[in-house]
Write a structure and sequence with these properties.
- InterPro entries: Amidohydro-rel, Metal-dep_hydrolase_composite, Metal_Hydrolase, Metallo-dep_Hydrolase.
- One of its GO terms (molecular function) is hydrolase activity, acting on carbon-nitrogen (but not peptide) bonds.
- Keywords: Hydrolase, Signal.
- It holds the Pfam family Amidohydro_1.
- With 476 residues, this protein is α/β, with parallel strands linked by helices.
- It has two domains: 109 residues, Urease, subunit C, domain 1; 309 residues, Alpha-Beta Barrel (TIM Barrel).
- The chain has a seven-stranded mixed β-sheet with strand order 3-2-1-4-14-15-16. A three-stranded parallel β-sheet has the order 5-6-7.
- Helix 5 packs parallel to helix 6, helix 10 packs antiparallel against helix 13 and helix 14 crosses helix 15.
- The longest helix is centred in the C-terminal third of the chain and has 21 residues.
- The termini are far apart.
- The N terminus is likely disordered.
Amino acid sequence: MVTLLKRIALALAASNLVGSMALCAQEAPDPAALLIAHVNVLDLSGDAPVIAHDQDILVSRGRIVAVDESGSIALPDGARRIDGEHRLAMPGLVDMHVHVWDTPELAGYLGHGVTMVRNMSGMPYLLALRDAVAAGEIDGPRIVTTGPILNGSGPNAQPNHQIVDTARAARAAVQWQYDQGFRRLKVYSNLSAEAYAAIREEAARLGMTITGHPPEGVREPGIPFDRPFNIPFETLLDDGFVTLEHAESIVWHGLRGGRDMDAARALAARIAESGVAVDPTLFAFYGLMRTAETRGAWLERPGTETLNPFITMMEGENFARWRGESAEAARADFEFYRRFTGMLHDAGVPLIAGTDSGIFANIPGRSLIDELHLLVSAGLSPYAALQAATVNPVRILGESDEAGRIAPGYRADFLLLDGDPLADVGAAGTPWALVRGGRWLDGEALAGLRDAATRVDAERSQAQVMEAIGQQQAFE
């Protein structure tokens, strides 16, 4: 049996803390080291939950060094000991579809237990923000980001998109994003077949991944009800997408807006066969539906004070539209998307949790807990819903060997909870404390982060976004 001392040595080496135990002995004490005692550690990586009771977790330099029975890990020199009082420790939450615009939003995510986000509309300044968080200069979740959204001219084009209508423009835009430092691409609905093919070719050449909305091709008269989309949905499933976004978009493209249950089950089976993961973002359409049902009162619910005011100003036309939409029609659409999400799960499609936070009225941090509740209402068990916000995202992002578990060598990003998220997923959104990048944040610190999320600055956000749009070259 490997001794505890050897396990600690192996973990230290795995996390690049030191080259050997001899080196470790020569190092100065780590004043940021933590020993969190007496916690029950939840492992979400298997087919069923496993809880190791009464454990100690040793954290040093941003990594988990050891996890073992309470009392069996010696407190290192200079380390801080915290009594977890038999609370549940679980991996930090991941929101796989957000739109980050400014620093205060990051506090909102972390204050609700979200320790990692995937930003789905990158701009150059977000790379600097990502690096500042990684360096510990800003409190926030770890940021993974795509580049600017690649789209074609048409009904869904927006000012922050990079519009590419030809293969030449598409190749140039992909190269530009690569040169800026982006390694993940997001594609959108309006892309022509020619531009989309060029994006795929350039991505393969440069080693970049692709995610996003299913590209439909040029929207011509009669599409999709009288004639099919120019890019058939089924062909996209073999194109190497990391994830496909939005149950709503998949239903629109894959079923041509139809509501046939047998066709929906067949589509879910085909997606499962392909192996591509789906990010249903149920909460995104749920918010639209609730806006229609409440004639806009939903837009003023508690927490909306953390929304970026520049973006809410830009959403004014959208807000007005959804205040006047048919509540009955919106509810029927949402219920179908929810049922379809359950079909995807039943078919074996890997699901991840994303919220579209940062646009419309989707509150950073809090919305992920709403998404988990909606996934449970779609038929997922609480355990499966938690997996969609922990182990599934890191596996899909290729980080399963360093995130998503509380184990030696893994990043020290985890929550300590008073409640049981296996009974109520909402417990994950109100952590007693958390560790992010090896740093201890207690309840007072988390409350401070939630307060900091309200300190929004429309003028600064507008200046950043407009400057970034100006930096995005137009390609022809």
